[in-house]
Design brief:
Distance between the termini: 100 Å
Number of helices: 15
Largest sheet: 3 strands, antiparallel
Strand content: 5-15%
CATH superfamily of one domain: Intergrase catalytic core
Strand order of the largest sheet: 1-2-3
Number of strands: 8
Order of helices and strands: EEEHHHHHHHHEEEHEEHHHHHH
Structural class: mainly alpha
Helix content: 40-55%
CATH topology of one domain: hpI Integrase, Chain A
Length: 354
Amino acid sequence: MLYKRRNSEFWWCKFTAPNGRRVQKSTKTVDKQLAQEFEDKYRVSLWRIMQLGEKPRRTWKEAVIRWHRENQDKKTIKDDLAHIRWVDPFIGGLYLDEVSRDRIDDITDAKLKTGVKPATVNRLLEVVRAILNKASREWEWTDRAPYVRMLKEPKRRIRWLTPEEVHQILIHLPDHLASMVRFSLATGLRESNVTGLEWNQVDLTRRVAWVHADQAKAGRSIGVPLNNEAVVLLRTLQGNHDRFVFSYKGRPIKKANTKAWRNALVSAGIEDFRWHDLRHTWASWHIQNGTPIHILQEMGGWSDIRMVQRYAHLSSEHLTSYADSLCQLKTVATFSATANAENKKAATKLMITA
């Protein structure tokens, strides 16, 4: 039956469900005819669920609440919630089975119109996709999840520096930031792991540091080998702060990507370079010096080998012998670009096979 509450403008319905449970629910409408239609459909829905075993229809908001409850410890939870709030006007009032591919495409188009890059749109779509997949595959709230079409992202080139360029940056940095740069290039640690490194995570005798699982991007602990440069650097920092390895004027450093860092880049003539690119530089140097891909993966704490294979093109020496197999030139000597024609002829000896 329908009734009105003193503190609500909407019609409410109450009845006894097939299992004997008392149901009281707002119809969310002031129109009595629509309210009666809502009650009739709700009665039928409960009957089909209880008597025929059909799945109850779940809403997007129900899925969001459960997903949030299960992912409160996720490192990107704040960003994820911002994405969820952004899509609310599009699907916030829908049942999960009403969230179709067309609806998701509408979200994609609307987000692109705000002027953001495809990568930003994809981060939003990843959250939507994760919730829909959970509801379908794990919670079994829906029979299937709609396909979420991701946008094509341009492949970002690996930005790394030469030792000479690093030197130019270092001479323009204050001492505390220069120490952090040197340590980052010696270990490959991410900015947050460098700024948050504590002395109880360092063992100079064993020449090792470690990143706890809750501090690592991949969610698992990382052992960090300390080379000679890192050990010497850390010894110079002992006594500066009783807890944190890197500090400035007695206070722990919360962020390395500061105005001083950006000014040093300008003074050194370095463009298109971020603090995180120090990690790319570390990995690139390792590859160029012959460190195997699988070893670099373990050192860098990457969970996916594909992340490390981005650097593979920097080391192609092992392919040279295969390239030479199709070459008729058996020996070749290099010469200076400034040498004259006679010197070039004398410096280069070629043996051509028949």
